[in-house]
Amino acid sequence: MNRYSIFRHITEKEFEEMKVCLSGEQKHFRKNDIIMRHTDDNSSIGIVNKGIAFLLSISENGETGIIDYYEKGAVFGKLFSPDCDVNLYYIQAAENCEITFFSYDRLMNCCEDECAKHKKVLNNIVMDSLRKSLMHIDILSCRSIRGKLSTYIRYIRQQKDSDEFEIPVSLSDLADYLSVDRSAMMRELRKMKDENLISAKGSRITIIDL
Amino acid sequence: MNRYSIFRHITEKEFEEMKVCLSGEQKHFRKNDIIMRHTDDNSSIGIVNKGIAFLLSISENGETGIIDYYEKGAVFGKLFSPDCDVNLYYIQAAENCEITFFSYDRLMNCCEDECAKHKKVLNNIVMDSLRKSLMHIDILSCRSIRGKLSTYIRYIRQQKDSDEFEIPVSLSDLADYLSVDRSAMMRELRKMKDENLISAKGSRITIIDL
DNA sequence: ATACATTCGTTGCAATTGCAACAGACAATT
DNA sequence: AATTGTCTGTTGCAATTGCAACGAATGTAT
What we know:
The structure is a homodimer.
Chain A: H1 12-19, E1 25-29, E2 34-37, E3 44-50, E4 53-58, E5 64-70, E6 75-76, E7 88-93, E8 97-103, H2 104-109, H3 116-140, H4 145-160, E9 164-166, H5 171-178, H6 182-194, E10 198-201, E11 204-207
Antiparallel strand pairs in A: 1-8, 2-7, 3-6, 3-8, 4-5, 4-7, 9-11, 10-11
Chain A binds a DNA duplex through helix 6.
């Protein structure tokens, strides 16, 4: 169990027991399919097995933006998002996806041991959401594109534990996630290459000296 | 219990019972005092009785920013924040404050009824954090100062349920929270007044037509 | 009462950014 | 094989924004 798994702090034995709870329904989605809408009564939970999914928000004035993305192993669901009074939220497939769905009740109430391990998993999921939100705020708080880019890259380095990695989304989508103009971001990316801070080929980044 | 109280969904009877748990230590802080540091072993929780407190972050390169602010009734604590690997976080008094501290254990384990109401309160607190984070992301995602300002103002209108209200922090601190230059924000604020979208005197805002 | 610090409000100027538009690379579909 | 669509990469130009600086107003400490 790596430190970002929702099953961290769960023993092997507990995990084996919980596998029963997780035998949910598997579904496939094609790129751009809508996987889930955050409607009021929605109590289902999705885990990404393959592909990448976006959490998108539509604001009052109709603008959409990428709030978060879910890679393999990540969990999403309205239950782990706050009430969305102002914006509409939904989950969309960034590429072809395989998702396992199960109900909140099933995860929480299927075995006898109601409190201990289920509470841990729930806590892990919620804390993951919080951590990713704070990370996003930290990135968006940077005043310049340079700042946003390098803060993002530093987070990914920490996550992948390597100075060389593939950005999990397209550069167009990254610009959306960073809330900057794509062409302006490309310009800044090139400047950073010119200054020998990073090297980059498409979405493959190597950190030289940030 | 209003909808933003951490005691929402708790009955009057349950609330009376829980008051016992909440008889924590009261402390006063003066403006700019540091109320709490988010160190690893910190398991105490604070509730704001009077004043306003900031959640501040210090990034790797030493820049600080206002991530969140806590008004009367709001709860803060490292336990409700994710692990802070990259940035340092701390709570600071934005003005003179009165804070009640108690331990996580005390809130969760002081009476017999361990699961039901305590779980609800914990859930409320965590969901508040998440909701405020998503709100902040939504605001910071706007590309222009105008967008950030009007999105922020719309959220406050919803919160205060009125078209006329006082912004709870100084305009300087608001600029920090919105991650924009203060003078540029003032300029935009004046433009919005000139265009008759809002009227504003200091931090007292009246929405005319957003 | 006086000195000091903070916030508010404003402006000129330089730098950054967004917008629009275009071409090439690549993949998927027909 | 041709077509369609998406993504990458680039540029000129206009608009926005940040920076630096200043004075006025307000509040706080001595």
